[in-house]
Amino acid sequence: MIATAKSISYGMAKVEYDENKVINGVKVASEAARQNVYGDNCREIVEEMTDVQRIRSPVRNPFLDIVVTLSEEDCEKITAPNQSEWLMKLFMHDLMTEQMGLSEDDYAGMQWIAYQHEHTDNSDSLKHWHILVNRTLLDGKLVSDSWIGKKAAATANKISREYGLTDAAVRSRENRKDVFQAACFVLGNMRLYDFNRYLEGLNALGYRTRLALNSKGEVQGYYITAQSGREYKASAVDRRLTIGRLAALHAGLHKGMKAAAAKSPGRAFSMPAPNVPTVNVENMLRVFNTDAVISYSTPPPPNGRRRRGKRWEDMSDDEKRLAASGISM
77 with 24: CB under 8 angstroms? Predict the structure, then answer.
């Protein structure tokens, strides 16, 4: 389980999205849990929160926007409505009392509502919840938003450990490793670097991509969705995957494979494929057609001709240890 959080000003726009989310013409949103709000729809609920906010002087971002997401394997553990309600109440209580420092009485005076989305635009099985929180308590106190993102993530990690859910930090590392391997596999099979074909290759391999555009419609970056369904900004996976560094990564990968092949005649070297179905790899290779590299190799030396080994002074420390054990360098 993972969680993100931030303070926002657009409470009405957020909760309308949360309550009415539609994917492929089907509504995927339903209410999961609430506290101290009684309206019949999202507009009435935000109006209730706004009334409470008038108790004190205005703040720039009067709401908290929290998203809690389960991994695909954990989605099978939380299926019934009462389980979703229990998880949201547990998460909110622990976040506010243990991480944000609210007393039980203060937390009892907090307004929030959570909506469950059965899946995302990029995954048919990635269940998650959107929570809108009023930062102003019923008695007028203001809840801090300091480090709210890190505190939400810490709460998700704690609950994951206590209830046998997937640890967010571990899954995030696995996802980023998976995405980076896929990106290197695509680049390693491109004879000539081209950003658009690189994106086509990732999509064909099963890793959906999305461009990040600024207000002028200019490309500022891009996102890649891991096999788990989690979307990552490319720069968050590895700085070498940023648009400005991809060409250098492409050149470095091919240089490394050529060098390895030159050192080991008769062996073929290629980028390791990610754990995806064979048909996905075939789809990617069809994108590159005859331009696909596949692998690099050099012919073995003629029979009876020995390959000259490295001099001791030219060996690395690891190679010296191997040579000392009797392995030819």
Answer: no
> Taking the model in full, what pTM does it have?
0.63
Rounded Cα–Cα distance for residues 111 and 158 (Å): 23
Under 8 Å between Cβ of 207 and 227:
yes
**Could you report the per-residue pLDDT of 167-210, keeping only the tens digit for each?**
766 777 888 999 999 999 999 999 999 999 999 999 999 999 99
CB of 230 closer than 8 Å to CB of 256: no
Strand partners, 223: 210, 233
Q: Coil, strand, or helix at residue 280?
A: helix
Closest CA to 169 of 182, 179, 180, 160: 160
| pLDDT at residue 11, as a whole number | 93
Q: Show Cβ contacts of residue 193 under 8 Å, excluding neighbours closer than 6 positions.
A: 187, 246, 247, 250, 251
Q: Which two tokens stand for residue 195?
A: 């950003």
**pLDDT for 107-138, tens place per residue?**
999 999 999 988 666 555 568 899 999 999 99
Q: Which of 230, 122, 244, 258 is nearest to 195 (CA)?
A: 244
Q: What does the pLDDT look like over 203-248, one tens digit per residue?
A: 999 999 999 998 888 999 999 998 877 789 999 999 999 999 999 9
CA triplet 62, 142, 54: central angle to 5 degrees?
Answer: 60
Mean pLDDT of 77-94: 90
DSSP letter at 9?
S
Residues 6+ apart with CB under 8 A from 87: 68, 78, 129, 159
Which residues lie across from 69 on neighbouring strands? 2, 128
Residue 62, token pair as written in the block: 């009067």
